[in-house]
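Input sequence (252 aa), recorded before submission:
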Amino acid sequence: MTHHLAVRGDVNMLSIKPSVLTVTVLLGSLALSSAADLTGKVTLKGTPTPEVALAMDETCGKLGPAQTTRHYIVGKDAGLANVFVYIKAGLTEKAKVPDAPVIIDQKNCMYNPYITGAMVGQKVRFKNSDPVMHNVHATPEATKGNKEFNEPQPQGFPDIDKTFDKPEVLVRVKCDVHNWMFTYVGVVDNPYFAVTDKDGNFTIKGLPNGKYTVCAYHQKAHGKASEGVIQEITVDSDKKIDFTVEVPPPAK
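Predicted structure, token format:
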């Protein structure tokens, strides 16, 4: 009797396993099919003022090639670099903050990258790869809720890790020792953002299906006067959207 019960139990277990595997596979497939890649291109309309050579001091001038401002970097087919593209609204679930920090380096007396993004609460790590003194001075908008900080970073000094507590596009960070050094961080409450490459292309991976407000923001073109170019989209598979950023008229 005991023998028959054991066999019956084994048979039941064997009969259940394929169903469990099938359900697992189906759930995995469903998870994969419910996420999409959002791609596109940002182009510039109009003719910007030419970039200006940076008047570096003698020490910084010897560290690398001559540098210019980075207000409007335009590539192939009028593609505009350094545009921060992000999901502004529509997400229904809160995402986990990445463990990996965002890296911003000070090299050849320039902040690199010039534009980057981070989630609220994610570490932003500032490095100094130069043989000179820098300082890391964040100047967020007073109304946004992030705290200003200003810390020295001499040659060989440890990396400086910081976080931003509130969404803000964009937070300016500068070096007071070298007044031409700036970087900008787009701080958002989700991981769905990108910065356009040298030809204006961007990809936001793994966006769940849904209806979203997407924003493309350019630091020089939009500044404080505009929240950027906005589109409303519905995502149910991989999707492509394009934006046009216009050069603002000259200030009167």
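Checked by second reader. Residues 1-33 form one domain.
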